[in-house]
Amino acid sequence: MNRNSFTIILLTYNESANLRACIESFSHLDASVFAVDSFSSDDTVSILEEYNIAYVQHPFENYSQQRNWSQNNNPFKTPWVFHLDAGERFTPELVKWLEDEFEPDSEIDGFMFSRRTIFLNKWIRHGGHYPNFHLRLFKVKKGKCEEKVYDQHFVVYGTKATVKAGVDIIDTVTDNLFNFVRGHSRWAVFEAISILQNVRAHGNVSPKFFGNPIERKRWLKQYIFEKSPLFFRSFLYFVYRFFFRLGILDGSVGLVFHFLQGFWFRFLVDATVLEFRVKLKAQNISLKQLVEKEYDVSYLKLFDK
User: Fold this and answer.
1) Mean pLDDT, the chain cut into blocks of 10 residues (305 residues total)
2) How far apart are CA 106 and CA 84, in angstroms?
3) Residue 223 CA to chain centroid, in angstroms?
């Protein structure tokens, strides 16, 4: 593996709290690094300059567009890219795998790695949350981020391989509960609009029960979870995660995580769907008109398709 093999593409926006740990985790790799910043107002850019990382600033529309723009405008023109967020880090095992086992000339077009969720300084190991595979390293000519405003995955049109659990990406979910709740409240509106608009039809990940982990997860969400009654599904999902998938073994911190992420967030999505339906019936207007009237204009991007 050498610097001409792949580029680590890093998206940043006000990530001064996480950025140094992220960069240090791959600082010994002989790889190019390209950061795309969304006009941060904190010390993010200064940190990028401190580590001599090539960067540009580009307006943020949504994650899909930003990731694909970054990949298409990579100044290093490497045949492979590894997409990373500033709140994520490489494990030493992942660094070693890239140094010793990654073969750029392989017939494989993309690799999936498990992501370790770190919540309040605790690794969430249970509840079906680990291993949790995501496609991150792939050939530029074969892969991209699917063109969705919400709930995007990377896709590869070719051969994919799953790297064994343990060779992981570390994901620090949040710095505090306030930001966690605030962020998920915003995502709940995106999810509710997507459900009402059937936005999932615009994705590139094919829902397949017998497919790879990403395709299976999409199938379960689309054909099982979303087909279940509102509210009941959030209770069922939490019980499944916490008891049947042993999330209870993650302790008190795990209880907070599984309850908020596995129940509260899903319940909030359903409550928002109900809110939209009630208001649409009462006001006799379109969903787009309601969103434009009562919500932030950023949600209107869901109606661009």
Assistant:
1) 82 94 94 96 96 96 92 96 95 96 94 96 96 96 86 90 97 92 93 79 69 82 88 96 97 97 96 96 93 85 70
2) 22
3) 21
